[in-house]
Design a protein that fits this description.
The protein has 414 residues and is an alpha+beta fold. 30% of the residues lie in helices and 33% in strands. It contains 4 helices and 22 strands. The strands form 3 sheets. The protein has a 6-stranded antiparallel β-barrel. Strands 3-10-8-5 form a 4-stranded antiparallel β-sheet, with no helix packed on it. The longest helix has 50 residues. It is elongated, with a radius of gyration of 42 Å. The two termini are 38 Å apart. The N terminus and C terminus are likely disordered.
Length: 414
Amino acid sequence: MTTATARPLLSRFKIPYKTLALVALLGAGGAWWWSQQQNAATPAGETFTVARGEVRQTAEATGRIEPHVQVEVKSRASGEIIEVLVEEGDVVEAGQVLFRLDARDAERALEDAQVTLRRVTADVGQSRANISVAQAQAEEAEAARSLSERAAERGLASAESTRSATSTAQVATATVTLRQAALRASQATLAAARLAVQDAEQRLAEMTIAAPVAGTVLDVTVERGSIVASAISNVSGGTALATVADLSDLRVVGSIDEAQIGRVEPGQEVEIRVDAYPDRTFAGQVERVAPLGVEEANIVTFDVEIVVRDEQASLLRSGMSADLSILTGLEEGVLVPLAAVRTEGRSRVVQLASGETRRIRSGATDGRRLVVLQGLEDGDEVRAVPSADAPVAATTMSLMPGGGGRRGGGGGMR
């Protein structure tokens, strides 16, 4: 995730854990009662024909729909908004201008910097000219010194004139060094002036505020004439001008309790339901499972990020609450009604229509039917057993928050 944000997880939507626990407990009790009613309503001895099918094992959660990239647009500069170029719902491209600030002060600052740059540039030219003059004088002084020394060797010039010529040559050489130092100082001033111009140009460019990412404008919080604070220099973080989000990549962040998290992994399919469309589900896929749990009220939950993969994902809106049903397993086999299963010790058995008692090896259950992995074949007929003998524990309900979601149950049967 980015400031383009790249938003490391976004805000989480979580129902209070006590409420979840109460709902799950009531759901478990209701499922137990329903199972008992089903068994009671099934006369002992009634026969069922078993058939092959599949049981879907799911982990339930709730979350909130959020864009993967959602950026709060702020200004690097302080000033007055003089132009607002977008409205809520507009689709913008990265770099598109959204707002303009009053740029008069920034323009004057740029003009001052440019004038200073021109003056310093002239100073550098003058320094170079001074060096040329000093070098010419130094060459002339050195020639005079050399001529005076040769004349003194022949007795044609006095020692005093030779010393004077030597001193003049040394002064001329020192003058060249001085002029070169002045040139270096002027060049350093020139570099600072150029930086000042670049800085002024940057300040002027910041008077125009552009979209940091492509997406949809979710809200605009300022109007023409509003005074905004810089996000760079203001301690409070500056004024938020708008929010831009990429609605083509929607995510749902849900919380899964530790009892179910072991069955959840990236790549699993997810059914997403929202209150706005109660008659349909949206397809999703688990992309990330948080490696670190969060403990609250002695309950540990893990965040799970789901990517919306549905072709009609455009129907969804950022901020919608969603129910999540994560497909954690799909088990196929012969399905037998729980009303025909009883427990003997640590084993489960069924009674065939012929009266034979047969031990079975069971698999997953959806609370109504049980997958029989061994012991029955497609087409076998079994008898219902009295409710007192029914394996009540076969109903798979979780008392942990998230175990049943708003729809309850840990699995579904196709």
